[in-house]
Every structure is written in C-alpha cells, then in structure tokens.
Amino acid sequence: MPNNGISRRAFGLGVAASVGSGLIASALADTRVNKTADFLQNGEYNWFPERSPTGPVVIIVSVPDQMVHVYRNGIRIAASSCSTGKAGHGTPTGVFKILQKDKHHRSSTYNNAPMPNMNRLTWSGIALHAGNLPGYPASHGCVRLPLGFSELLCGITKLDMTVIIADENSQPASVVHPGMVLGNYASQEFGAVDASIKHYQYAQGRSQETSATSIVVSAKDRSISLWDNARIVATGKVDIAQPEKPIGRHVYTLTQVNEGTKELTWVSMAMSSRSKNADDNALRRVKAHPDILKKVQKAMRQGMTLVITDESSGSKNRTADNFTIFTGEGLY
C-alpha cells in the first residue's frame, strides 16, 4: 500500500528530549487526596477506580492546566497534577500510544537519571513517569507525575493504550454514534463490527503481540487512512457534509460497544478551540466510501483511535500546527 503522501513529518513536531535531573518526587509533592480534579494542588492526585472498574483506559494530559486525567470506559477515575516540558523543551501535543513500560527505568540521555514507573510514548524520549514537581513546566519534554500516582497508573496501563496530550483547556466528552463509524448505516451491519471486536479481544487474550489501530481522516483531502502500528494498511475516500465549513481537529477513542442499542460509544477530545463542543457533529459529518468502510469495520476494536482534521494528510507544513500522532516507531 503506498504511503499516500504522508511522511514522518506529516502530522508532527520534532520530538523533544527526555526529562532531565531531579526525577524522584519528594514526599511533599506526592499526596493522595479526596478532592475533585478542579481542586487539586501541586503534588496532589486522586484515585477512584471503583467509579468504572472495567473497560478501555484513556489518559488525557492538559499542558495548560498541568493536569493528567484518567478515563476508563468514558468515566474519569483519577486525576493528578504534573509537570510538562519547559520553554525550549516543550512536551509535544497529539495522540500517542504506550510503546513500553518499565517500573525501574533510567534515562539514557541524562546521566542515568531514574525514571520510575515509566510509560514510554516515543522512542525519542517522551514518557510518563515519576519525577520532581516544582509547580510549573520544568521537564525536558516528559510528563512528570507524583510517585504514588505513577505507581497506580502503571498498574492499569497497557501497551498500545491511547494517551492524548492537549494544549487546550477542554475535557473529554462521551459521543454515542448511531451508525457503525463514519456514516449512518443500517443496524444489521452492527453484527460485522461486533464480531470483529470480539475476535480481536479473543486473539489478544491468547497472544502477547499487540496492535495499535488508528484511523486518520483528512477533510481537506477527503481521504481516510487505516493504520496498524506504524504502517498504512488501507486508504480510501470520504464524503464530508457541509464541506464549506471547517470540521476542526478531533480525537475519538472507542470505549464501548452496546449490543442492545447497536451503538458505539467514543470518548472525544477537541484538539483546538474551534473544535470545542462540536465533537458529535464532526463525527456525523464524515461518511466513508463503501470499499474502505468494510476494511475499517474489520479493524474495529475497543481502544482504537480515530482522528479527524481539516489539515491535508500530505501537508509539508504540519510542524507549525504543533500536533503529533505517534504509533509504533513512526509518526504520521
């Protein structure tokens, strides 16, 4: 399958370096509290896994708020203060997959500095891990967390799980789509999607191999790309309702399949101010052509990521937009 004009720069920034020294969180900056996310102070975190015991987990990092939010099955179960990249070493924003986990990791860049409970997001140095929390952005690109929170988080994360790093003060919302995905389709087609998801869950339970499935839709190109890890496995065309209106930049993660109502539930995240409060409408405006739709249906699985953007999939100037989509060893 040709690359369809998407290069390693196509949705990317240059990758920042790893976090520097001062990586172990002090006791003063590591406090579990019974507070809501809005009232957390630096070094504090909450943890309420009982609110949603099972289901796909999505992590949202808000750079402006210096906060991390953890959602399971679309419900927020935890939140924590954090410290992201300082000036000149900003944490890249976008959609990432967890590539590696290591409870006792040490930095290969910064004097073998400890990076406890590390969840790697890029092979070039960006990760979630325990670290010093001064109350402002201070890392070399990583997301530093309270030590206690990082231990709890490491206990529920899995390889290929979605992590969204956002530069907007928006919170994820739940979107229920009446069709399968990318268009309004007959309810009898639900069986094909449901069967694909169940088959993947069965196979995943019997194998140690993982697969990060993502879909990227470009409104400008009227194109759709299906990704499996760092490789494009299918491309096709989409129709956009009201094409004269911008669609914005949105990220969706599939969290629930309801066999009773034959609906899919997505956790949505607007990645720009003009996208806020329009997530449901954006998803409904996109309709995939039949040939690519069948391939998408077969690739459906809980935890998969769908990105919709106004930008061209072959743009050479995406670095200016401060948006990165990573998976496997590559970035689209």
TrEMBL record:
Give the positions the UniProt entry annotates as the active site: H129 (proton donor/acceptor), C142 (nucleophile)
Functional pathway: Cell wall biogenesis; peptidoglycan biosynthesis
GO biological process assignments: cell wall organization; peptidoglycan-protein cross-linking; regulation of cell shape
User: Which GO-annotated molecular functions does the record name?
Assistant: peptidoglycan L,D-transpeptidase activity; transferase activity
Q: Which organism is it from?
A: Aminobacter anthyllidis
Pfam annotation, one family: YkuD
Which PROSITE patterns has this protein been placed in? LD_TPASE (PS52029), TAT (PS51318)
Keyword Ribosomal protein present in the record's keywords: the answer is no
Family, per the entry? Belongs to the YkuD family.
Q: Where is the L,D-TPase catalytic domain?
A: 57-166
What are the GO cellular component annotations? extracellular region
InterPro entries, A to Z: LD-transpeptidase (IPR050979), LD_TPept_cat_dom (IPR005490), TAT_signal (IPR006311), Transpep_catalytic_dom (IPR038063), UCP029342 (IPR016915)
**What UniProt keywords are attached to this protein's entry?**
Cell shape, Cell wall biogenesis/degradation, Peptidoglycan synthesis, Transferase
Q: Would you say which domain of life the source belongs to?
A: Bacteria
Q: Can you name this protein?
A: L,D-transpeptidase
